[in-house]
Amino acid sequence: MSLPEKAREKLSKKIAGLLRHYGPRYGLKLDREGWAKIRDLVRALHRIPGYEWVEEKHVLEVVAKDEKGRYELEGDRIRARYGHSLPVKMKYKPLEKPPPVLYHGTVSRNIYSIMEKGLVPMKRRYVHLSYTWDDAYETGRRHGPDVVVLEIDTSCLKRNGIQVYYAGPKVAVAPWIPPDCIRPSKRGSPRG
């Protein structure tokens, strides 16, 4: 029997948090590339009130049904593909032929700083970019209602010597994005 959608989403957020940000506080050991044993992830989840019921099969279901490709499995190990604040060294493959435009979702209060300094990883290891406008918009909504989608000119990144990497089926990453490679999208509404 599979998990109800809401329970699966809640568990996915907790798994992402453990693998990206706070796993060691719950006894989860990650290797230098961010890998953890699935059984150790389950043990860490059991240390969090309300997650004592989780079994390995639930973790595997979350991974199998995750449309964003947040997680990667290798044998009995799991890791988050992107979004780390923990000091892990991900080995991403360069996007040899990135699309002409990638997207980044944010909110209007961040625009002045972004257009002045560029996009920087902040507390993360890389800047996250979406392949589609809609995905960037959804990402921006997590930060507030006044979403702004930015277009990233990948030929400009190449001219600046900045490599873009594949992090998942919906996410690319880069070490930073200079302001001259960023422009606000003229598209004003989701799926419009």
CATH class of the largest domain: Alpha Beta
Describe the global form.
globular
Distance between the termini: 38 Å
Number of domain units: 2
Which whole number gives the mean pLDDT?
Answer: 92
What's the β-strand tally?
10
Radius of gyration: 18 Å
CATH architecture type of the largest domain: Alpha-Beta Barrel
What is the CATH T-level topology of the largest domain? ADP-ribosylation fold
Note poorly predicted spans.
none
> What fraction, in percent, of the residue positions are helical?
25-40%
Q: What amount of the residues lies in strands? A: 15-25%
Q: Strand sequence of the main sheet, in spatial order? A: 4-8-9-6
Tally of alpha and pi helices: 6
Overall SS class: alpha+beta
Largest sheet: 4 strands, antiparallel
Strand and helix order: HEHHEEEEHEHEHEEE
Description:
The protein is of the alpha+beta class and 192 residues long. The protein has two domains: 5-80, RNA 2'-phosphotransferase, Tpt1/KptA family, N-terminal domain (Arc Repressor Mutant, subunit A), CATH 1.10.10; 96-184, ADP-ribosylation fold. The chain is 30% helix and 20% strand. The protein contains six helices and ten strands. The protein has helices spanning 5-22, 38-46, 56-64, 111-117, 133-141, 154-159; strands at 36-37, 71-74, 77-80, 93-94, 101-107, 127-130, 147-153, 165-166, 171-174, 182-184. Strands 4-8-9-6 form a four-stranded antiparallel β-sheet. The protein has a three-stranded antiparallel β-sheet with strand order 1-3-2. Strands 5-7-10 form a three-stranded antiparallel β-sheet. α1 (5-22) packs across α3 (56-64). The relative contact order is 0.15. The model has no long low-confidence stretch (mean pLDDT 92).
